[in-house]
Design brief:
The protein is mainly beta. The protein has one helix and nine strands. The chain has an eight-stranded antiparallel β-barrel. The longest helix has 28 residues. It is elongated, with a radius of gyration of 27 Å.
Amino acid sequence: MGQLSTSSKLYWVMCLALLGYGQAAQAQQMPVSRRFTVQVHYGAAGNFFASSFRDTPYELQRVNFLGTAGGGEVSYRVGKAGAVALAYTRSVNMDEKHLSYLTNWGTTQYVDFRLRYVNNAFQAIYERALTPDFKVHAGLLYMTTASQTLYPGPPNSYGAPYTTIDESNMGNNYPEEGGVVAGLEYSRPIDTRLRLGIKARGYYLISVRTFEMLTLTPTLSYSL
């Protein structure tokens, strides 16, 4: 095979340079044309309020501090570094309760229950990118709660304790609060549209002056 002439070499160098320039320009324009981002998140939740409850012989309602949190978010880019978003997060904190009792036959048995404390957090958020991979966010919070309480009672004819479970939710006494939410997120691109990251967010209820919970969730974002 013969060697390329100087003019041929120059031609191919110019073609490669133009191709590289076109790809770079397309990469720079790509984020501009993609204003919407859809994100899902799932991870851990630490509930300070629910774990502060104390069980008594007559009332059981405490749940574990660590639980799970998951949800989704839709954001719309405003300007070069800002975005507004609507988000939903559902957290669940649980604990198992074991009530021992002596049967009529002289043996020890247990009655097992699993109590749940559920938060539904609806958020309107403003996000600000500090770097291409790091952003902070803050906004308003509306939260509803479903919590369970176990009341041990006197033993029945078999010796087992007669128990009742009461749940407070939106269907009976409307447990709802308002507050603020804030946090930060770090993410990295895994292709031209997908980003993988991790997000920390705190939830403060102004209506009852309580720091409700903290979530730490991995995130997967898709740009439209």
